[in-house]
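User: My instructor asked us to take a sequence, write out its structure as tokens, and then describe one feature of it. I'm not sure where to start. Here is the sequence I was given:
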Amino acid sequence: MESEKVTLFSGVPTMLWALLTYPDADKHDLAAIASNLRQVTVGGASTPVEILRGFEKKFDVVVLEGYGLSETSPGVSFNRRDRERKVGSVGLPVWGVEVEVVDPDDNPVPVGEPGEVVVRGHCVMKGYLGRPEETAEALRGGWFHTGDIGRVDEDGYLYIVDRLKEMIIRGGFNVYPREVEELLVAHPEVSLAAVVGVPDEQYGEEVKAFVVPAAGADPDPDAIVAWARERLAGYKYPRIVELRESLPLGATGKILKRDLS
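Assistant: Let's start with the prediction itself. The structure tokens for your sequence are:
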């Protein structure tokens, strides 16, 4: 970024995190990097607000979040420079694309309520090659069912709450990992976090957090649990916190939660 004088940068949230926490950053001319950067776009996974704001402050640049999937070629919605940007939102649907949020019976939910995000428009795939049953299920009713939980506000802005498959059901209550992760990365001794559900005899699933400590920090897992307990509903806070030097990442930089247990 320094030598090539990068002006536009697109990536996934863990790339922002890596740049934000790069230990040798002081050896580079951050002011020059910031002066060249005009815009950063991020997608592929939910971006914790603390990371987004920290990156914007460090590099003095606007970060615009968007949303899309391989099946939507790939854009569904985007925050735009010429309109209001809402931090935490993935913006408004792009031209020619419709977005709705529906309940398990595919009925639209009220404004602001969570449900599955469904999409239709010119960007949606024709189907999965050689997989007619999966295609019919994904495209039922003329809408592509994303498998993502989201909500739409009164201005039409889309917010991704979590992956439907990653939702934790603890004692009959729904826990969305992203909400817990957003809180944990706000802890002064936490750099990155991933939350998963693990089997539990009493509650069915228990909330477990994998935490990468901030540089120079040596957090006490029990203290993090107590800190989260003060800030989240009783069924949401993680009962288990495991410290990790790093989290498993895929080729695109996404955290591989399937490798955490």
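For the description part of your assignment, you could build on this observation: The radius of gyration is 19 Å. Try explaining in your own words what that tells you about the chain.
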